[in-house]
Design goal:
The chain is mainly α. The protein has 13 helices and 4 strands. The strands form 2 sheets. It has a two-stranded antiparallel ribbon. A two-stranded antiparallel ribbon has the order 2-3.
Length: 340
């Protein structure tokens, strides 16, 4: 069994995400060489959403918490850049500190209340919190109201100016790689194992002596903070913050990305975000009615593989492994006969 997992881990499910990250690292250089700067902006947006999807995957994929309110943290992260910048504060560490503190508090409060329920009630409560956040920012006329607000002073993190597209791109990519590495470690760590156990049967985990709800709350809060950081990067990318980033549709998009890529897998959110936003961009260039094609395509992909793209790659790895294992005896017989 150990041999099977090890071999599968070095198959397509291992190499495809790794090669994708390598291509993403080289993309700005290739875009500059081909004079196609648009792709850097487009892929930077994908990376930001992939980071937010990684954050959601911790709560949804690992913890089984179907949060429909992660747009709240994403949008608040954006305003943690926009509001200080409105007063001329461009210190990135202040933006980051504000983002971490506010998202931690919001995540703790909303998580404590939401985790008193489960199932549909949990989904509806998290959605309600996000909508409350949306209407709060729409009502803040001093900060642009529903028109949003421009950011004239992007975050300055020491020598890193996040107003520079290339620096923002690589900062997001590094943070995404670190997040994926962290999720890989969490997956096999005791914390992750308890969390995944609670997703399947919280009462059994509780009976074993682990406070399942505390683990879920910790995952929810950490997920909220990481999603807020993604929102902070998104605001710097667009030089703009808008209440639309708190809309329920953003939460829905993030859930689709996680499901499409593979819930609970390490690389699933990355694959899902790239596939989702890539297909969206291609279809938009073909037709104004792209959503009519896009919706059925998402449903079809979801039906083809319930474990998403990451699950599909793992299935291919397993098939290749079985064929290799079945071919070995026959090959050894032929070699033996030839040697005779």
């Amino acid at each position: 069994m150990r041999t099977t997992v090890s071999a599968a881990a070095r198959g397509l499910s291992f190499w495809v995400p790794l090669l994708l990250l390598l291509v993403l690292a080289l993309l700005p250089v290739m875009a500059e060489w081909l004079d196609q700067g648009f792709f850097v902006t487009l892929v930077a947006r994908m990376l930001v959403y992939a980071l937010a999807a990684v954050a959601l995957n911790l709560a949804l994929g690992y913890g089984g918490l179907v949060s429909f309110g992660h747009a709240l943290f994403f949008g608040v992260g954006s305003y943690c850049v926009a509001i200080p910048a409105f007063y001329g504060i461009d210190a990135g560490w202040v933006h980051l500190l504000a983002c971490v503190v506010v998202c931690t508090l919001l995540g703790a409060v909303t998580g404590l209340i939401s985790l008193r329920t489960s199932g549909i009630a949990f989904i509806m409560i998290t959605l309600a919190f996000a909508q409350m956040g949306y209407f709060v920012f729409v009502s803040l006329k001093n900060y642009g109201g529903d028109d949003g607000m421009s950011i004239t002073a992007p975050s300055q993190l020491g020598p890193l100016d996040l107003g520079n597209l290339t620096i923002l791109y690589y900062s997001t990519l590094v943070l995404l790689c670190l997040s994926l590495l962290g999720m890989w470690r969490i997956r096999s760590a005791p914390f992750g194992m308890v969390l995944r156990g609670a997703r399947q049967n919280a009462r059994r985990i509780q009976a074993l002596g682990f406070p399942a709800q505390h683990y879920q709350l910790a995952a929810y809060v950490f997920s909220a903070v990481l999603c807020g950081v993604a929102g902070m990067l998104f605001a710097n990318l667009n030089s703009f913050a808008s209440p639309s980033s708190l809309a329920w549709s953003v939460s829905g998009d993030l859930i689709v990305m996680v499901v499409l890529g593979g819930m609970g897998s390490v690389a699933g959110p990355l694959l899902g975000a790239l596939a989702f936003l890539g297909m969206e961009e291609v279809l938009k260039s073909w037709s104004d009615h792209w959503a009519v094609i896009f919706g059925p395509m998402i449903v079809l992909i979801a039906l083809m593989g319930r474990a998403g793209i990451a699950g599909l790659l793992e299935r291919i790895d397993t098939l290749l492994l079985r064929r290799t294992a079945a071919g070995r005896p026959a090959q050894s017989v032929l070699l033996t006969e030839e040697s005779r």
